């Protein structure tokens, strides 16, 4: 019996995400519950996963983006309360916002200093992990699709 494609893809995605997250953890000063803080600052941001890059931080630059626009770009609600609490985002409240922990749709989001540092680390990590996988498994196996080699 053949292993279903969805199973194979989920195994590959899980392995890729773990390697991506481990590399981010090595490069980014952070804090966790069990292991405290790394780096020289005790107020380092909370350690987060590749999902926070994919669903939030890659869309938030120094110019800022409204919460509404971020949701449009990501096509999913982001974990804004977490990203604010964990030290990656700062919020400029929008008109009528009363609770800074729950930004309204017109609130402007910008990376904190730690958030910008994380963006600089995350952005090249896909190329880094892709290169490792090509070296580890062979370029042909990584680029092979449905029995055909990619051009």
Helix share of residues?
Answer: 40-55%
**Which structural class fits the helix and strand makeup?**
mainly alpha
What average pLDDT do the residues reach? 87
Oligomer: single chain
What distance lies between the first and last C-alpha atoms, to the nearest angstrom?
31 Å
Total strands = 5
Written as H for each helix and E for each strand, in order along the chain, the element string is HEEHEHHEEHHH
CA-based shape: globular
Strand proportion? 5-15%
Described by strand count, sense and barrel closure, the largest sheet is: 3 strands, antiparallel
- Total number of helical segments? 7
- The low-pLDDT segments are none
CA-based gyration radius: 18 Å
Overview features:
single chain, 151 residues, mainly alpha, 3-stranded antiparallel beta sheet, two-stranded antiparallel ribbon, 46% helix, globular
């Amino acid at each position: 019996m053949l292993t279903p494609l969805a199973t194979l893809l989920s195994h590959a995605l899980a392995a890729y995400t773990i390697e991506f997250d481990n590399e981010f953890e090595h490069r980014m000063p952070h804090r966790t519950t069990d292991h405290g803080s790394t780096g020289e600052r005790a107020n380092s941001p909370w350690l987060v996963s590749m999902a926070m890059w994919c669903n939030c931080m890659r869309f938030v630059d120094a110019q800022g983006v409204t919460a509404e626009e971020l949701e449009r770009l990501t096509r999913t609600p982001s974990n804004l309360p977490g990203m604010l609490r964990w030290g990656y985002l700062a919020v400029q409240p929008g008109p009528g916002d009363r609770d800074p922990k729950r930004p309204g749709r017109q609130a402007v989001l910008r990376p904190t200093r730690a958030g910008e540092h994380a963006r600089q680390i995350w952005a090249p990590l896909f190329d880094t992990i892709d290169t490792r996988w090509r070296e580890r498994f062979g370029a042909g196996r990584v680029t092979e699709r449905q029995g055909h080699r990619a051009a």
